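Posting here for the record, re: zinc ion.
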Amino acid sequence: MVNGVIPLEPAAGTAWPADYSQAWTLAAPVERSGVGLHSGGLTRVRLEPSDQPGYRVGWLDAPQQPLQALHPRQVCETQLCTALQLDQRRLATVEHLLAALAGVGLTAVTLLVEGAEIPLLDGSAQPWVEAIAEAGLQALGSRPAPPPLQAPITLQQGQSFATALPCDRLRIGAAIEFSQAAIGRQLFSLELTPAAFVREIAPARTFGFREQVEQLRAAGLIQGGALDNALVCDGDGWLNPPLRYPDEPVRHKLLDLLGDLALAGLPQAQVFAFRGSHGLHTALAAALASLP
Ligand SMILES: [Zn+2]
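Prediction output follows.
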């Protein structure tokens, strides 16, 4: 352990795709269950191989309902997590699972869910990466290229902005600014590959603030949030160290950005978010999804 950072060996031994040029599904089904962040109840997800492009959601507790292909237009709430309205049902906290699927290069997966949210697990995408490594990947041939970005897209919300610039690969970056000394200003960017995602982004956990945690809990939200599934900042320090990276918060912001972009499929672009939020990320995903 150096400077309070634990080195991780995520899903060691797994051969991840070299890049995002091919289509992949799972080689076998795999299942995880755990507590939902908001409800505090137990929820379950079964990931299954699919030969249909995209991520499609069905229900373990309503198997007669048709699968629905995920799209940014389904986003119905972005305050604490990304929640989707899928016909009559709401599905919350989809972002870390979607980041794991897209990040490792999976392009075709069926998600069967029991409950109204995706389990939070440890607050990162790492347990999903491990589940995917357990199932293995199955090649589906070459992947249709995403629609080319002809001109930059920039979205601004207050002091925050997100931008996508034409690029021949996926470069992604984020910057955050907090007055709390434990976080301060952080910037992280990289050329994304499945191996880089697994090594640099997937293990970064959700973070929150001590006073916010108390308020949200009093308001009946984040009933499942606890010190073992989110980093909690107390101004100058953390209530539950050690961190997995010295800049774990900005890496988690990138994880959230990827998960939200995954609603439209990973773009071929240079993407950057300054003080990003789920609202901004999903608006960018919607803009990318509407490209001709
Ligand atoms: Zn997150």
